[in-house]
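Entry for the shared binder. Reason: the reviewer on the internal report wants the predicted structure included alongside the sequence.
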Amino acid sequence: MIRYSILLVCTANQIRSPIAEVFLKDYLQRMAPEIKWTIQSAGVRAQTGISASNTVIDLLKKRKFDISNHKSQPINRQLIENFELILTMEAFHKEALQTEFPDIKTRLYMLSEMSNLRINVQDPVGKKLEEYLRCVNEIDQWVLNGIPRILEILNYPNL
């Protein structure tokens, strides 16, 4: 069985990267169910075992996704070694990972770079519901628009 692995990264691994994880899993599993996709998320400043934001859990539930069992995990060497592609939500996350792990540079990108842009996905933490909803919709679009480039980087054979 062919396998591909992607890690999505934000700050605390409670809002943005879990959103991206669920959307990317859904799109790729529907597109290529014969592939073994390993898609996870983590945070550059995450604590271990914290649930996703309740607001995000509720917003994704309305889209028929259940992330109520999500638990945050911090980035570390052992984790990143398991992934062929690492996608960050912000330039800060990418720079922090490049500094700490310079050898991963060739497999490290911002999510927006999959659409040939360099735009940060802003963290809605502490803001109104509308900002969380904007974030969910924005990540959904970045993931969907970025799938062709993601597959190209992974050398997916059916392009």
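Summary line for the report: The helical segments are 16-31, 54-61, 77-80, 91-100, 129-153.
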